Amino acid sequence: MAHEITVPLLPCGPIDEIVEFYTMLGFTRTYYQVRPYPCVGLQREDLQLQFFGMPNFRPEDSYGSCVVLVPDTQQLFEAFAAGMRAVHGKLLVSGIPRMTRPRKRKNADNYSGFTVVDPGGNWIRIFSSPGTGTTGAPAVGTLARALENAVVLGDSKGDNQQAAKILDATLARKHDCAPAGELLAALAYRAELAIRADDTTAAVDALTRARAVPLTEAERSELTADLAGLEDLEAVVGLAP
């Protein structure tokens, strides 16, 4: 048999919070009930999710998670990001709910991935479908390898503190000799980790250092996504680009 469809059923608190959040991301409500128990279904094109409400639910304690495979993680991220910017004027990059940026995941065969953490604390882990997405080459430089390890810890496991320690140690040693692209990406991610930790001072420092990285026109063209990421983070901390 082929063409099976799996629809995750995930826990949450008030289902209206879930509806509001996913509507912002471009989903439409396909099912809704409050009795005998709260439940809601949501769909965006072929992506379907369902949620059941629980009393006294704590999103920070949730183990809810699912994997979604898509042809183009960057395209879906940009659509979600546009919805967040339209409603909030910025990306939600810390707390609950939040969203990470698409990054190569060495623990997923170097396919690009990003994560949406919804108001129920559910981790919707979005990856490129094998054979459709573009895999990145394994990192070569010391700072690039450190960034890969930090992304696994921060974006896949939620260990932002250890991810920051890895980057800080490597940036201290390699800041003056790392290639511009590696340095910019590492500093941008360090800023994002600082925002997640509510450390605005460290975030502003990393963003200021990132903006000071000298780039050629060719590098600017190649690093368009990274530079756009800096703008999103600057909007969060109120720092003008």
Automatic annotation (TrEMBL):
InterPro entries: Glyas_Bleomycin-R_OHBP_Dase. This is VOC family protein. It comes from Nocardia speluncae.
